[in-house]
Amino acid sequence: MLGPAVLLLAVVVVRAFFVTPFGIPSESMQDTLLVGDRLLVSRTTPPDDVQRGDIVVFDASEAFNLEVPQRGVFQRLVEAVESLAGKGQPTDYVKRVIGLPGDHVRCCAADGRLEINGVAVTEPYLAPGARPSVIPFDVTVPPDRFWMMGDNRGASSDSRAHLGEPGGGMVPGADIIGKVWVRYWPLDRLGSVDQGQIASVPRNGE
Questions:
Q1: DSSP label at 154?
Q2: At the N or C end, where does the chain have fewer CB atoms within 10 A?
Q3: What's the number of domains the chain is made of?
Q4: Is the peptide bond preceding residue 186 cis, with omega within 30 degrees of 0?
Q5: Domain CATH for 120
């Protein structure tokens, strides 16, 4: 029979390399993800395979210039146990990938929509009548960086909120923890999460 230490090690390995639970703490991704939703996040998607429209969890400490709290061994152990129920680190964010490396992203186009590489795109995951952004922006995403936005654009602290900081709010690919895979709670919302892919647009400069 496996002892508690072996079981804990197995759980840690699975979380580190394959799948991680994550709970939604805010309204920034409504109505796609609601406060209290619990998700499984696949860690097997490399940054090169991330697509526009994917919903991902990432460590925002570098990109969003967040203070990382210092924790002792006991606190780390407590956090490891809490993570089994989907409680992430305070610096873990869930957002939608809007701009890939090299993309020119701006808001807004003449028709009021988000524009990527000169093409105005429809975003089916936004609430009816919602504006793509009340904050105007015009950015080109550097290599190995991603532009992230929440679906609830009026209540999301995302890449737009960090434009004037070092890095311009762009998220390094290495900081992406994984792609949202499935919702396991609440039971009446059990199932895969619709990623709401953005229609294909040309590469910047084509």
A1: G
A2: N
A3: 1
A4: yes
A5: 2.10.109.10
40-51 pLDDT per residue, tens: 999 988 889 999
Task: Encode pLDDT of 60-101 as tens digits.
Answer: 999 998 876 655 544 554 555 555 554 556 789 999 999 999
Contact 60, 149 (CB under 8 A): no
Helix, coil or strand: residue 8 = helix
Expressed as residue numbers, the domain containing 148 is 4-192
Q: So which residues are the catalytic ones?
A: 28, 95
Integer CA distances (angstroms), 105 to 18, 109, 138, 141, 170, in order: 31, 10, 6, 8, 12
Let me know if residue 205 belongs to a domain: no
Within-domain flag for 198: no
- Residue 120 maps to a domain: yes
- CA triplet 190, 54, 170: central angle to 5 degrees? 135
Mean pLDDT of 99-106: 97
Domain-located, residue 48: yes
